Amino acid sequence: MERRQFLEVTAAALGTTAKALADAPMPTTTLGKSGLKVSRITLGGHHMGANGEAVAEKLILRAIDLGILMFDSAHVYNKGKSDEYYGNVIGNKPSLRQKVLLMSKAEKRSKAEAMQQLEETLRRMKTDYLDLWQCHQVSEHAEVDQIFGPDGALEAFVQAKKQGKVRHIGFTGHRDPAVHLRMLEGYDGWETVQHPVNLIDPHYLSFVTNLIPKTRAKGLGTLAIKSNAIGQITKQGVAKIEECLRFALSNDIDTVVSGMETVEQLEQNVAVVKTFRKMTPAEISSLLDRTAHGPIGTAVEKYKRPEAKAAVIRALHSDGE
After folding, report:
1. How confident is the model at residue 18 (pLDDT cuts 50, 70, 90)?
2. pLDDT at 212 over 50
3. How far apart are CA 269 and CA 277, in angstroms?
4. How many structural domains does the chain have?
């Protein structure tokens, strides 16, 4: 079923209009030990720029109208334009800035370079602080060594929080849960972690199985990404959008960072979240049994470490939601 058809069917089934959807309460929760109150869906900062500045800014405004509280970006997204889109809509508007949570990320691994990226992000967003700043797309063990090493990026994150330039700090990635575990074990001050959560993930290098229990035990806030494996789950006919979102939300996570390119897609996904019914253990088991018999691993999750050690090392995938 195409996205447009799904939205029409969903709207008809709910007997709702766009205004009624906007007026319906947005489910919220607390983002772990950060204490931040977040909406259960977050506007992804990568895909929102797919159709240019005007559409991106409409997405931000409509997301606010629908009750979304958390807004995602990264220094690298759309070559810095994603940060700027938020600045154009929210920056220099104190009343609006106080209503939303802005997060961005830095992919540089040295203290000096990470701090430079933070300053650039703050300038682009036209704000003097971020609610959440994350160490972006940590993919290899060598990167962990750099981050924790002398003059590594960790020093920038600790300093920025002390200075009040960021309220909370965390890290992200999608390639290998073992790398995330090293990040988790190497520093107790992380407050959030962001990683894939989808109905293919449990079958290979699973973040759901290997990471969530440990991050939750430490009280970290959990942000789910790639609920649709950057479109591959629906593209390959593995599952529908609604199943992808329901599965992600049915796990022990706080918010789904969802990549949406149009206002229509935004409204569709928000409709699913606002009418969310948690999957039962039996439903999850049945769903995973079904997906286990189809394409799994990097056939779907192309951003994860290749299965065979002898595989040609591909360029790291850009961390879009």
Report:
1. low
2. yes
3. 14
4. 1
Start-to-end CA distance of the chain, whole Å, equals 21
Residue 277: inside a domain:
yes
CA separation for the pair 109, 120 (Å, rounded):
16
Given a contact cutoff of 8 angstroms between Cβ atoms, the answer to whether 102 and 68 are in contact is no
Domain holding 269, by residue range, is 31-299
Residues 95 and 73: their CA atoms lie apart, in Å, by 21
The pLDDT confidence band at residue 320, using thresholds 50, 70 and 90, is: low
Count of other CB atoms within 10 angstroms of residue 252: 12
User: With bands split at pLDDT 50, 70 and 90, how would you rate the model's confidence at 24?
Assistant: confident
pLDDT of 254 > 60? The answer is yes
Write down the pLDDT at residue 4. Answer: 43
Sort strands 28-30 and 37-39 into parallel, antiparallel or unpaired.
Answer: antiparallel
Q: CATH number of the domain that 55 lies in? A: 3.20.20.100
For residue 188, being part of any structural domain is answered with: yes
Is residue 304, in this structure, part of any structural domain at all? no
User: Side chain identity at 89, as an amino acid letter?
Assistant: V
305 belongs to a structural domain: no
List, in sequence order, the alpha helices (H) in the chain.
3-14, 18-23, 53-66, 81-89, 94-97, 111-125, 141-148, 153-163, 177-186, 207-210, 212-217, 232-235, 241-250, 263-274, 281-292
Regarding pTM above 0.85, the answer is yes
Distance (Å, rounded) from C-alpha 23 to C-alpha 250? 24
